[in-house]
Specification:
Layout: H1 2-39, E1 41-43, E2 49-54, H2 57-63, E3 64-66, E4 72-74, H3 77-108, H4 113-124, H5 131-142, H6 147-154, H7 168-191, H8 196-204, H9 209-237, H10 241-247, H11 254-262, H12 268-293
Antiparallel strand pairs: 1-2, 3-4
Helix pairs in contact: 1-12, 2-12, 3-7, 3-9, 5-10, 7-9, 7-10, 8-9, 11-12
Length: 301
């Protein structure tokens, strides 16, 4: 009887999980398997792949290049693109955190719940507009003789055009603007649960505002800060629209490089290999983070 009950419970759980497992398997696992298979195939003569012809050339090309004699030499061009992507993503995280944490803290400290909800609503307003349209708006703002350039000249701050469009700076501005809500909302979700009596107790014990912030508020908001950093950093690595429009051809990021391989270059194996290299780096970073901050059995870190 007990065994039959357990089988029934297992069947119910399987039935409940089946739709989500089917979606994950069909839209994530199977494409990843297909990409892995394409990455080890031979490049087709006129694009695509040679099915059934296997080669590791795509992974070799990531670090090396062949000369006319077939000899291998180190090529760090693609590593530089990966490094640029990681640096820009890291800078975006820092800028989003510097702006997002005070914003989330201000929202969480408001007494009027209706006003807090209004502020959260205003944070989400950019999601109402297509990302492509928002980036074209930044082109109008950052270009020479654009709104910012003309305003700076009118105020006497500059004498020459600012020349910031199609630079890493413009990409950083666009990425920070695009992903800032992903930093604000998780931090606000953590700070909303903050017990202000803890802060009052810190003041009673002689702490000033800076020490109360560092000792009470930031540690309690740490889960939201970590979640926000991850939600900003990972999408930034694979961003395509913002680097394409605001960075131009001189500031390629990983997403643009992968798109070029599947598009203009028609080198599907190399594009798949680049995608898997990015996935491997992100997974290794996440594993390192999990190992570093996992909780010990006794409840410590």
């Amino acid at each position: 009887m007990l065994a039959a009950l357990r089988r029934s419970q297992l069947a119910q759980r399987t039935a409940l999980l089946a739709p989500s497992l089917a979606i994950i398997g069909g839209f994530m696992v199977l494409p990843l398997i297909l990409m892995a298979y394409v990455s080890i195939l031979e490049k087709g003569t006129h694009g695509g792949v040679e099915w059934g012809t296997y080669s590791a050339e795509a992974y070799i090309k990531f670090l090396f290049e062949r000369d006319l004699m077939g000899s291998l030499s180190v090529n760090a061009d693609y590593l530089q693109i990966f490094l640029r992507s990681f640096v820009l993503s890291g800078v975006t995280v820092l800028l989003a955190l510097a702006i997002g944490f005070p914003t989330a803290l201000y929202i969480a400290l408001q007494d009027d719940r209706w006003y807090r909800n209004l502020l959260v609503f205003m944070v989400t307003i950019p999601f109402w507009t297509n990302l492509l349209v928002r980036n074209y708006a930044w082109i109008i703002l950052l270009r020479n003789n654009g709104l910012i350039d003309n305003a700076a000249a009118w105020l006497g701050l500059t004498q020459e055009p600012i020349d910031v469009l199609y630079t890493p700076f413009a990409i950083g501005v666009g990425l920070t603007y695009s992903f800032l809500p992903f930093m604000v909302l998780p931090i606000y979700a953590s700070l909303e649960k903050l017990d202000l009596r803890l802060v009052e107790a810190a003041f009673d014990l002689g702490a000033d505002r800076r020490r109360a912030l560092a000792r009470i508020v930031v540690p309690l908001a740490l889960p939201g800060i970590i979640a926000g950093c991850i939600l900003v950093f990972v999408p930034c690595l694979g961003a395509y629209v913002t680097p394409e429009l605001l960075g131009g051809s001189k500031s390629l990021m990983i997403g643009n490089l992968i798109q070029n391989q599947f598009g203009a270059a028609r080198n599907w194996p190399f594009g798949a290999a680049l995608g898997f290299a990015l996935l491997a780096i992100v997974l290794l970073a996440m594993m390192a983070y999990a190992l570093r901050f996992r909780r010990a059995p006794g409840g410590g870190t």
